[in-house]
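Section 5: illustrative case.
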């Protein structure tokens, strides 16, 4: 007499294998969702940082500003303007090194050029980005 059905142990093993595969797929989906949200957030932060790179008035001193202060030269669309107005940024500046070229150039003592290398950290609500800035005096 041949049985044509699965035994209870075979069914339990199959359910366990399927459960492990489904758990792995759910974990992979959750990781991908987290990574994508972090990349989206970092892309937005990098866009905000580009506003500081293009604006020489900010980033070389410590202060608190709203991002809409950086775009006073043009009128962004209303949604972007509101987002920039609502985003407060704390600027932390640290002078890393100062290079005085007048000390090394003995030929022309009237010309003095000083390079200041500094690190600007932009702290927003839940994220931050750092930039290296060079200022010539």
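Designed sequence:
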């Amino acid at each position: 007499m041949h049985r044509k059905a699965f035994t209870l142990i075979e069914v339990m093993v199959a359910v366990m294998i399927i459960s492990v595969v489904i758990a792995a797929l759910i974990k992979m989906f959750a990781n991908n969702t987290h990574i994508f949200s972090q990349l989206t957030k970092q892309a937005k932060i990098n866009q905000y940082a580009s506003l500081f790179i293009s604006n020489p008035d900010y980033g070389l001193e410590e202060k608190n500003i709203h991002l809409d202060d950086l775009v006073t030269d043009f009128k962004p669309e209303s949604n972007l303007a509101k987002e920039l107005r609502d985003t407060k940024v704390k600027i932390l500046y640290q002078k890393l090194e100062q290079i005085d070229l007048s000390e090394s150039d003995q030929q022309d003592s009237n010309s003095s050029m000083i390079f200041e290398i500094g690190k600007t950290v932009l702290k927003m609500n839940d994220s931050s980005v750092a930039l290296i800035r060079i200022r010539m005096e």
